[in-house]
Structure prediction request, 116 residues.
Amino acid sequence: MSTRKTHIKDNDLVSVLSGKDKGKTGRVLGIIPSKNRAVVEGVQMIKQHMRPNQMGQGGVVEKEGTVHLSNLKLVCPKCNAPTRTKRQVFEREAGTRTKKYRLRVCKKCGAVAEQE
Ligand SMILES: [Zn+2]
Prediction:
C-alpha cells in the first residue's frame, strides 16, 4: 500500500460535516494520512498558551487542530456545494503515448473537482 487513497488532498476546499465547525468551509492546509486526519484553515481552532519568547509576547494563540477525513467533504467548484466524488480515468496525448490519469469528479455534475 504505497498510494494514499484519501479523498481529500492538500489545498482542497472542503466543508465540515460535523462537530463544532459543522457547515464551515476552508482550505486544507495539510493531511496526516497515517491518522486519516487533516488540518483545515480556520476549523477546529484550539487555544495554545505560548510563553513569551523572541518571536512575540506570548499569551494565547489560536491554531488549527485536526479533523478526521470522514468529517470532510470536497466542495465542488461548479455546484459550489459539498459533494461526493468519484475517480474517473482521463487520457492525455503525450507524444507517441497516451497517458492515463485519474481525477476526482463531482458525482452530481461531473465537473472535475481537482484544484490545480
Ligand atoms: Zn458538482
